[in-house]
Specification:
The chain is of the alpha+beta class. It folds into three domains: about 5-165, Beta-Lactamase (2-Layer Sandwich), CATH 3.30.450; about 225-300; about 310-450, Heat Shock Protein 90 (2-Layer Sandwich), CATH 3.30.565. It is built from eight helices and 14 strands. The chain has helices at about 5-55, 160-210, 225-270, 275-300, 315-325, 330, 350-365, 420-430; strands at about 55-60, 65, 80-90, 90-95, 115-125, 130-140, 145-155, 310-315, 335-340, 345, 370-380, 385-390, 435-440, 445-450. A hairpin with a 5-residue loop joins strand 13 and strand 14 (about 445-450).
């Protein structure tokens, strides 16, 4: 399964690359070290090979002998890993070091130019793998014909293998330090590389919250095409929103005349002695008007993002609505009690805040017996909280989750369309707020709304 996070993908790729690179470096350095040590051992063997060539001679009886022994004491220790041997034509191991004990080294038959050194890797005594240097020399005696000899120096490669293993072990801490530094460099690189995307995410969040209208153009060349496309999309979306709003405004304007005619017909029926039919027509006109109003609000708050730097003063709009309500038959009998901060602003368009508060206050005035309490404060999460409580009959807790559903009316005794709280819910959801219900201290319905505070 591929990781969904771009950061995780970059980390996985970087860790794999670092691991492979360090493994190759570890193996490569260990191999280079082994070759270096092998060349060093080969050079030592060639030096001792020259010493052996200088020390060998033919005795008067035709036998071979050394004028002096090689100084390295390992040649005297049985199976010590360092050996020398001299072959005569047809006689292998005529002379050999004590370290070979009773073993004789067998070399391949190859053409040797006198004086040149050949290198071999051959099996040795006690299962050893030997690094071998050989050369052919011609020894001349005073009264005999020249004799060609094959001189052999050998070294057990176990010492080389141990040295390589020790070097590889010594490299581990340093490779670990390099891995840590590379991981730190990768972290810095990933953070630096993804910083423009993080900035882009914040800017998009600001646009969604209404604090900005476009993405900033300052960005790396690789991100600028994306910013241009997003800005073009925002412009196209704003155009669509404006067209939708214009269409709904035209629709509302076109319905004014039919609704006025409907109201006139209702008045004529009332004067003609048909009050029930007139009341039905009035209620129908009210229902149509309220549904049109709701669709206008939905077109404004749902078909587009909140405008840049939306701001509305809560107390100012509350006072404006209450002045209007107190002149209505339902509002003038209510004791409106307000407890609010002096200046509190929410990140809403003024029209939307008026629509929200107007529906809540109208609903409270409709059901309140004689008192409505209004509180405006700042909630624990930094949002503006508006609480409206009445002393009416209230709503059973089982119905609270359904309040605000389109067309829901829990009590048919009061006239209405059931759209007031539905409009409130639409506005609250469009601006990222919260709507809740409870029981007021006076026994009626408590409605609380939390809205984002304006910057």
């Amino acid at each position: 399964m591929k990781p969904s996070s771009l950061r995780a993908r970059l980390w996985i790729g970087a860790l794999i690359s670092i691991s492979v690179a360090l493994l190759i470096a570890w193996l490569g350095l260990a191999n280079l070290f082994e070759r270096h040590v092998e060349r060093h051992l080969g050079a030592e063997l060639e030096v001792q090979l020259n010493q052996l060539a200088a020390a060998v001679e033919i005795a008067p009886d035709g036998s071979l002998r050394l004028t002096q022994d090689l100084h390295d004491p390992v040649f005297t220790q049985p199976l010590s890993g360092r050996y020398w041997q001299i072959d005569r034509p047809g006689q292998a191991g005529v002379l050999r070091s004590r370290s070979l004990w009773d073993e004789v080294l067998t070399l391949p038959e190859d053409e040797l130019t006198p004086g040149l050194v050949h290198a071999h890797r051959l099996p040795g005594p006690d299962g050893q793998l030997l690094l071998v240097r050989e050369r052919r020399i011609r020894v001349v005696a005073a009264d005999t014909a020249p004799v060609e000899l094959r001189l052999i120096l050998a070294q057990d490669r176990a010492e080389l293998i141990v040295a390589r293993a020790t070097f590889a072990a010594d490299m581990r801490p340093y490779l670990g330090l390099i891995a840590l530094l590379l991981a730190l460099a990768t972290l810095i690189q990933i953070q630096t590389g993804l910083a423009p995307l993080e900035a882009l995410r914040r800017e998009i969040g600001a646009i969604r919250a209404g604090r900005a209208s476009r993405l900033a153009a300052k960005a790396p060349d690789e991100v600028r095409p994306l910013i241009a496309e997003v800005n073009a999309l925002l412009e196209a979306r704003e155009g669509s929103v404006e067209r939708a709003r214009a269409w709904t405004a035209d629709l509302a304007h076109g319905l004014k005349t039919p609704l006025s005619v409907l109201a006139t017909d209702a008045e004529r029926l009332r004067q003609a002695g048909h009050p029930d039919l007139a009341e039905d027509l009035d209620q129908l006109a009210l229902t149509i008007r309220r549904r049109v109003e709701r669709e206008l609000i939905r077109a404004r708050v749902r078909s587009g993002h909140p405008p840049h730097a939306a701001r509305a003063e809560v107390v100012e709009h509350l006072a404006r609505l209450l002045r209007t309500l107190e002149r209505t038959p339902e509002g003038e009998r209510i004791d409106w009690r307000i407890a609010a901060l002096e200046r509190v602003a929410v990140a809403l368009m003024a029209d939307d805040l008026l629509e929200l508060l107007g529906n809540l206050l109208e609903n409270a005035a409709k059901w309140a017996a004689e008192q409505v309490d209004i509180q405006v404060s700042t909630s624990a999460d930094g949002q503006i909280e508006i609480r409206i409580a009445d002393d009416g009959p209230g709503v059973a807790p089982a119905h609270w989750p359904r309040l605000g559903e389109r067309g829901l009316r829990l009590d048919e005794r009061q006239a209405g369309t059931g759209l007031g709280l539905a409009i409130v819910r639409d506005v609250v959801e469009a601006y990222g707020g919260t709507l809740g219900f409870g029981r007021a201290e006076a026994g009626g319905l408590l409605v609380w709304v939390r809205l984002p505070e304006a910057c």
